[in-house]
Amino acid sequence: MIETKRKTRKPVYKKSEAVRELERLATAEAKAKHPGNLYIINRTFRDDRANNLTRCVVEYIRLKGGFASRINVQGTFNRQLNKYIPSTSRRGLADIMGTFRGKSLHVEIKVGKDKQSEDQKKVEAEVTRSGGLYFIARDFKSFKQWFDKL
Asked: What is the pTM of this model?
């Protein structure tokens, strides 16, 4: 008799109140931007994966009047040359860089068991030493609490 592995189910994702507030803000902005459009779809967000959390953080900073951009430090593979082209960005840069009320923001996204690399720790020390603000976001709720105190 052949034994089959049973798949373990992932826990069901439950949105925090912070994510719900972000959805309300984004939906309200869309409706205000397009007042004649009766078919605005409610904006939806999640913070259970790194890409989703990054999107939440960037959008929240923007909705609150700041500037934020995702930073990509990954290289690329050139198919024509059949080789990897490393990034020209500095190793260890935070995933998101932004400005809010004249303050320099650097947000590193870490979801699950992900940890900071040594390069990221060095950049964090340099940023804080020079007066910038650095935050490691593991979920949107903790980021929002930190950001709202600025």
From this structure: 0.89
